[in-house]
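In practice, a research group might receive sequence data for several interacting partners and want a quick structural hypothesis before committing to experiments. The following worked case mirrors that situation: the sequences arrive first, and a predicted assembly follows.
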Amino acid sequence: MVDPDDVRRALRPDTIAISIMHANSEVGTIQPVRAIGALAREAGVPFHVDAVQTFGKVEIDVDAMNIDALSFSGHKIYGPKGIAGLYIRRGTKMVSIQHGGEHERRRRAGTENVPGIVGLGKAVEVRARDMKTEAEAVSALRDRMWEGIRARVPEVRLNGHPTERLPGTANICYRNVESESIVLALDLKGIAVSAGSACTAGSVEPSHVLVAMGVPLDWAMGAVRSSLGRSTTAEDVDYVVASVTEAVRRIRQAMPVGAA
Amino acid sequence: MRYSPTLVDHFLNPRNAGLMREADGSGSDEYAGCGDLTRFYLRVREGHLAEARFQAYGCGPTIAAASVATELAAGRAVEDLATLKAQEIEDALDGLPEDRKHAAEVAAGAMRAAALDALRRRHGNREA
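A structural hypothesis for the assembly, expressed as tokens:
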């Protein structure tokens, strides 16, 4: 988690803005934007929040959190791809970076993507209606998945903050298993997950997020992220738990003793 | 699916996975930078491979390559295995994507190392 005191210490007389990712996209930890917003206001520095991961999933109050600018995206809230939004607090000084037209009150030149805008508007409307109930349901499913895996698979850990986290994100490390082999095994079962480390020709990169969080390499190499959403069912979750259990057991059978 | 049905089959149903106690030869190879690791244990009878077992850490193709190598090596002369080429393993998997060729390299390297170890031990025993 980002420590607001670290943000405070990073401030300099010439700091022009503070920008924080509301939630980490890999592990789902939600950052303390309220505390950071308060210190930004105190220091008189404009505060931008990248809320692409959180918008429509967790409560955001731009006034209480002292947010001056906030970005969000359509594709993360079941809306269209290729459309996003930027909230700007009235009175915040902005400089256009895209010139050549008078569109959007001279803030951003270019013909507007009207179907995208309409779709985004509808998606936001639906999120406002369903967010709270869905967040509860999705969190319960995510917990069911983690509890199921933890009960059946030895040497697993859940990454990220235990409570301050996105409802649908579960990033789990399987010690001494290479994440890509789990991804392949689950893909063959029709389950889409993403690997926390990627092995391409020549090198393998464990997630810089997990490494920065102090996760040891023999764990970090086996990180797998699952994202649950509004269409996920308890049956899906149980199928994932069974498939993961079987895959990890099989892969570990072929594992060299003491491999890192 | 970017992997062949043969590769997927060996990944899902690995042949001869696991440790072998009192092997006549063992050897491993590692793919530097990637951390992939393959180890073979060989049981040798009259200069030929009677049984092979593998242990592998890595992505799906690495596990599949080790598995298929234990099959293609079965019954072969150990001298022959000491010069095993990666291409033969790749062919047995019906090909590998460009960025996963190292899976066959690691398996071949480990098999050569295990075969050389078996040969060394045999000659060592004669001298002793």
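Before designing any experiment, note the following. The CA atoms of residues 30 and 37 of chain B lie 4 Å apart. Chain B touches chain A at residues 1, 3, 8, 11-12, 14, 17-19, 28, 33-39, 54-60, 62-63, 66-67, 98-102 (CB under 8 Å).
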